[in-house]
Structures are given as structure tokens and as C-alpha cells.
């Protein structure tokens, strides 16, 4: 049985972009669940990263909750159920905007619904920053406020940092 990794994060951090990069041209399954008048989609695909193979989930359901501003009030629902069955998570943030209040909400949500999951925090859109600038180091420092350890820097769009992601995932999978 393949390990399952869920990609979580507030809207627009690049979850779907990372999902698409990891599954490339392979088919994704889509689960539709009407719940509380909101349709939550979760896409599942087979990820390949170097020699790693895992099931990857794009948590669009969490995004729906986040955008409706009720991320903490809706404790049930498909996303939570699916996350409970995922052993691992990639928690995406947007390095260009810095830490957003909703990122902290997502962190709280993770602790509440998946206390056993210690997510890998990935600063996405890092191709837009230079590694030697203060803004990058500041972003990395700030990301540690989330309490999930040191972040890695990636770009779902360009593929930057996929080796770092591989190295973070490999010991866990
Ligand atoms: P989601 O809402 O978290 O699923 O985010 P999406 O994958 O839909 O991406 C939101 C926006 O960010 C889109 O306009 C993407 O093209 C853009 N985006 C995603 N990943 C990257 C990245 O690595 N670098 C840059 N510059 N933009 C990105
Ligand atoms: Mg998306």
C-alpha cells in the first residue's frame, strides 16, 4: 500500500500547481462530496518524485472552508476525514506574501484534525526570491512561527526545490 501525502494550505498558495507537478500526466481521481451545501473536491493521484511513489491528495475542500472563513467551525467534512487517513502532509505557504493569518488557521486546523501528522512546511513560489536576500531568510524564520520546524523552499511552477522536497519526504515514506 502506498503512503498518502496530503497537500494543505490556504487558497492560492499553489497546492494544485504542486499536485499537478507531482502527478504530471497521470490521471487524478476526483471525489465530490456535497456537504453543508458546499461541494468539496479532493483530487487524488499517483505522485512520482525521484524513486519515491506515493498517493497525493489536493485538499481543495480545505480551501473551500478557508475561503468561506469558517475553517475552524466546520470540524466534520470530507477533508478532515481524508486527512485523518493521510499519514503525511505538505503544508504550503506563499513566500512572496509572507505568513498570512489564514496560514496560522491552517496550522491550527492541522493540529486539531491530524495531531499525528508533522507536516513538511514548504515555502512555495520561491523562484521569485533570491536565496541571498534578507527577505528569504526572514520568510524562513517567519515560517517557523507555525511550529512545524524549518521550512523548505520550492517552486511548484519551475520545479525549484524538488530535491529538497524529496529529501524531506524520503525518510518518512
Ligand atoms: P491553490 O489555490 O493553493 O490550489 O493554488 P494554485 O495551484 O491554484 O495556484 C494559485 C496561483 O499561484 C496560480 O496563479 C498559480 O499559477 C500560482 N503559482 C502556483 N505555484 C507557483 C510558483 O511556484 N511560483 C509562482 N510564481 N506562482 C505560482
Ligand atoms: Mg487548488
From TrEMBL:
Please list the residue ranges annotated as the G domain: 4-125
Full-sequence portion shown in this chain: 113 to 285 of 620
**In which family does this protein belong, per the annotation?**
Belongs to the TRAFAC class TrmE-Era-EngA-EngB-Septin-like GTPase superfamily. EngA (Der) GTPase family.
Q: Which domain of life is it from?
A: Eukaryota
What's the gene?
LOC110426187
Protein name listed in UniProt: GTPase Der
Native organism is: Herrania umbratica
